């Protein structure tokens, strides 16, 4: 999600035709992007991605969270790279929030026109309404943590949003298009992890087969590697694993080309034909 959020901000900062982006908003996005790309743990940010709600689940068209444009003149710049919070006030309930302990998030909310839009919001605010990684929560209250299987170290929670200050990303009503960029990149990361788990599991199974004694009948013992049926099963699984790995590598390659110039995209399209 951190990489996905960085790509979203990077795309808008690189666009000279971005409508409605003020100099101040550009400053905010630049500061956030530097933190998302930083390798220094003292300054680096991670990002959440909040879409799911009770009413619609994965159907984001049923989003109930609302965003109102309420510029606050009292919000001031703290200095350095940190700029003031955004002019949009977001209130609602997110039933499933990824990376709850992140420093920022990209979330979906509907404007008064009913247009589903994407917003950038830091998790905390400082004195005077400015961005401060050590300040109070930015209109976010944790309802409860999800009890889930798997990635327990990455907290997932139900969140109540009350006047969460944010900046709109892109055009009003284009929220799904913005979030799609994050989803594409996070899915590639998830795929790489899944393929890695499969490879690790197969390595353990193959190593165990070399030392595991089994009965061969009539009091004789042999290694599991001498079992034709067992090795045939492992071979089938290994072929599937290699296929998944190659597809994952190719997907990452095509994604990389798509993020570069038009020549790279043309090259990707040409290679896909063959």
TrEMBL record:
<keyword id="KW-0285">Flavoprotein</keyword>
<protein>
    <recommendedName>
        <fullName>Acyl-CoA oxidase/dehydrogenase middle domain-containing protein</fullName>
    </recommendedName>
</protein>
<dbReference type="InterPro" id="IPR006091">
    <property type="entry name" value="Acyl-CoA_Oxase/DH_mid-dom"/>
</dbReference>
<dbReference type="InterPro" id="IPR036250">
    <property type="entry name" value="AcylCo_DH-like_C"/>
</dbReference>
<dbReference type="Pfam" id="PF02770">
    <property type="entry name" value="Acyl-CoA_dh_M"/>
</dbReference>
<feature type="region of interest" description="Disordered">
    <location>
        <begin position="47"/>
        <end position="77"/>
    </location>
</feature>
<dbReference type="GO" id="GO:0003995">
    <property type="term" value="F:acyl-CoA dehydrogenase activity"/>
</dbReference>
<feature type="domain" description="Acyl-CoA oxidase/dehydrogenase middle">
    <location>
        <begin position="49"/>
        <end position="164"/>
    </location>
</feature>
<dbReference type="InterPro" id="IPR009100">
    <property type="entry name" value="AcylCoA_DH/oxidase_NM_dom_sf"/>
</dbReference>
<dbReference type="InterPro" id="IPR052904">
    <property type="entry name" value="Acyl-CoA_dehydrogenase-like"/>
</dbReference>
């Amino acid at each position: 999600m951190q990489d996905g959020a960085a790509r979203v901000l990077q795309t808008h900062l690189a666009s000279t035709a971005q409508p409605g982006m003020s100099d101040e908003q550009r400053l905010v996005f630049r500061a956030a992007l530097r933190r998302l790309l930083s390798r220094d743990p003292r300054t680096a940010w991670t990002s959440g991605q909040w879409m799911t709600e009770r009413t619609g689940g994965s159907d984001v068209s049923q989003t109930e969270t609302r965003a109102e444009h309420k510029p606050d003149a009292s919000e001031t710049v703290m200095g350095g790279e940190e700029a003031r919070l955004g002019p949009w006030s977001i209130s609602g309930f997110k039933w499933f929030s990824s990376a709850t302990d992140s420093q920022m998030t990209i979330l979906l909310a509907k404007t008064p026109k009913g247009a589903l839009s994407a917003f950038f919001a830091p998790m905390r605010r400082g004195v005077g309404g400015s961005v401060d990684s050590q300040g109070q929560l930015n209109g976010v209250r944790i309802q409860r943590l999800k009890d889930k299987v798997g990635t327990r170290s990455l907290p997932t929670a139900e969140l109540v949003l009350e006047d969460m200050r944010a900046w709109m990303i892109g055009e009003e009503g284009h929220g799904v298009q913005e979030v799609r960029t994050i989803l594409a990149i996070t899915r590639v990361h998830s795929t790489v992890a899944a393929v890695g788990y499969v490879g690790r599991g197969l390595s353990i199974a193959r190593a165990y087969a070399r030392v595991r004694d089994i009965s061969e009948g009539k009091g004789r013992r042999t290694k599991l590697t001498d079992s034709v049926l067992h090795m045939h099963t492992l071979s089938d699984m290994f072929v599937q694993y290699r296929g998944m790995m190659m597809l994952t590598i190719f997907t990452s390659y095509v994604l990389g080309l798509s993020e570069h110039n038009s020549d790279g995209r043309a090259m990707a399209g040409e290679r896909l034909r063959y």
